[in-house]
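step 4 of 6: structure.
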Amino acid sequence: MASITLKDVAKVYPGGGGTRAVDNFNLEIADREFVVIVGPSGCGKSSTMRMIAGLEDITEGKAYIGDTLVNNVPPKNRNIAMVFQSYALYPHMSVYKNMAFAMKMRHVKKAEIDVRVRETAEMLGITHLLGRKPRALSGGESQRVALGRAMVRNPEVFLLDEPLSNLDAKLRTDMRAEIVKLHKKLETTFIYVTHDQTEAMTMGDRIVLMNHGRIVQVDSPKDIYDYPVNVFAAGFIGSPRMNFADCEIIERGGEYFAKLGEGGEHLISLTGVNASRPELAALTGRRVTFGIRPEHLGVTAEMDDTESRFGGGTADIVEALGAETNIYVDFPGGLRFIVREFNDKPVARGQRISVDIQPGKIHIFDTETGEAVTGRRRHGAPPATEKAAPPAVKTGDAPTDISSGNDTELADQIAAGVADAIAEADGGDDA
Amino acid sequence: MTGELARKTKAPLTLAERRAVRARRRRAIRIALAALWCGVFAVVFLMPTVLTFANSFMTESEITSNYGAVFEKNDQGGKKFIAERVNLKLIPDKVTFSQYATTFLKSPDYLLKFWNSVILVLPIVVFQVAIAALAAYSFMRTRGRIKELLLFVYIFVMLMPYQVTLVPNYLVADSLGILGTRWSIVLPGVFAPFSVFILTKGMRRIPYSLIEAAKLDGAGEWHIFSKICLPMCKGSLFSVAILVFIDYWNMVEQVLIMMPDADKQPLSVFLSQINTGEIGLAFAVATIYMVPAILLFLYGEEYLIEGITYSGGLKG
């Protein structure tokens, strides 16, 4: 069992002017934690994992496994096991020999190898496969054998590089649950790389979201979903992806509204939105990015004018998925949002529908920087319409502050900013 | 019911059905023509082997009566067409093992030459494959401009016929003082670009994740080479071994140049001379000579095809 620390780690590949595949990567992974590194193709997640494994040199920075600096430690001495996307089972060896190979290389006694291979095989339910060659295994069986080969030598860290991407959808769901169960049983540090956000959301204690070689956000799956730090995080996590639209923040009668659409057709109240009044005041009159997840929009039967009403639109595409329906709705002003509906309301293509919005779930992003204006820092703060002093942290704070999850530090920041925040809030109201 | 069936069978074919029938007929004709073409080639290629084998069981007098013209001196200075007097026979009038008896019992010279072939060719095959495998592993594990350039040079050298390098080889052997010894054949033989090329192609087919998995499993370079790479390119190894064996089993020129001592020369050289005199024995000796190559081919046929296929259209 071991923790992993990566300090200012960078990977620069020679050629093409020195591509920085991973840059300024700082992360602490606790012992027995299940961390999922997720991001689009080419974001540097696999390079990061390979640097931890020792399969790639670390160009800059330091990597620790436990307290040991491992920058120059060869892979075989890091006591880590890796499950590859292609499983990487030795095709000329039987399953038994595949599992025994690592121990044989470490001169473990034959009798002990036998005991450990059989124990692991028993645990994974692959005892009947021990005599088979990898070519005689199905995808799921190969996956189990690959896991078994990694488990059998009791490594301190498990690295899993997109291990489910070659499986069909059903098997993937089953194996996802099995790997989580395995992590609980083995009580070992797991690092799991995937580009599939469903795997990231369902498996990890924490998610490390990467883009262009850098960490975008490190958070629990729930928090990364609820409080994305920028447009990229908001768009990457969640399926279907978050709806985005350019908007303008306006103030009317002491309340803040988001004006959406080419001609400002939609006026959405920002009451209950997770941002302070001064922040909204600072954005008044500016173009910002409005975001709402499809599940936070809903189809209503009544055409009402309540706060929760988004507006009427035309259902263009209706994807009935059984438990839910994704409706692509065209609204006046050139807006096209996806509405995720969990009720069995029959909606036909081309039908005019009225759509509700959950105002508390609205995300506002600075269009220039892409950073979130709404976020966890304001979680629990009074709504923008109330006069009470909101906790305030400047909008431009580094994402790592948010992702650190250090509540004490966060509380200190909030306390320190209260006085200024009151003044700003008053000023905002006057405006 | 029967009436319906009758109606169906007698019903005129639709246009689509007529086209399908025509297409089937054309395909059948194409297959038949291809089979005929391949059959003719197979007979042409197999004929010398079959003739050698069949004639090795003929008596000396039968062989002379059939092929005497080939060796008949023309004392009038005019040309004689060999085909006029040659009689290709596949079935002997009288089956005899006398040629084999002479080869094995009466003239141990042939067996001695056979043994010369073995002790020349086996070390070449073993060491060439071993050295080429190590070189190929190096080409596979590390890439870079210099390595790629070196591989290109290997391929370039491979394209040169042996005769081109015969003189330099002779000079080197002379300066090393090994001219006339078996080393003058074996040493140039064990370093061959052809085998390195084939094995490099074979090894580059091994998914790199397997090498990485082995590294994580604790294997060093030697274990990765011997436990992962060699077993995984068994096909290429066998094909190289077979091709090298056949190549050196049939060598003539290099032996004649490098090793003029007839006692050390292999059967391949002797066979080229025997044809000029004892034609009866030539068939039996040739048959014996073919056996190791044929056995090797039959044993490793699958690997040979696999190895050649992989060295053709590969990523790399």
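step 5 of 6: annotate
 - Chain B touches chain A at residues 207, 209-210, 212-220, 223, 227-228, 231-232, 234 (CB under 8 Å).
 - Chain B is about 75% helix and 0% strand.
step 6 of 6: archive
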